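Entry 12.
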Amino acid sequence: MEFAHRESAQTEFAQREFAQREFAQREFAQREFAQYVTSQSAALVRFATALTGRSRLAEDLVRDALCRAYVRWDRISAAPHARVRGLVVAEYLSWRRLFTARTGPDAVHRLAVLPRKQRAAVVLRYYAGLPDHEIAAHLGWRESTVRTRIARALATLPDQR
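Predicted 3D structure (tokens):
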């Protein structure tokens, strides 16, 4: 009888210890996420603005991407910026994001004439500075597709004159 009581107490202690560790890990993850958002929000909004050509829409994209990142933070916190930027691109390319962009003289507005996928590839290459293999990974394409889409995009961009 005493053995069963001791085993039960040990199990209860182990469960309590596990719960405390889990709570501490969640608390740490929340602080880490808050710190990431504080330090990277402006850069993410600039990146999303380059994609969309609209600051309000860019803010919405970043907000939605950060909400998705928060839920998965324990899995993406090892390389958060690349993963969150990928979530921003995914939100931008999603079927829910139907919008028209203005055209104008600056580079961001000139990108508005491109189809969404071409614009995403161009922004990832020239704004984020990613190599073809990383762009391919973000967009789920082959590297040759990345190069082709970027070449077509550059051929159709309006002149800078």
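Annotation: The first helix runs from residue 2 to 52. Helices lie at 2-52, 55-71, 73-76, 80-93, 107-110, 116-127, 132-139, 143-156.
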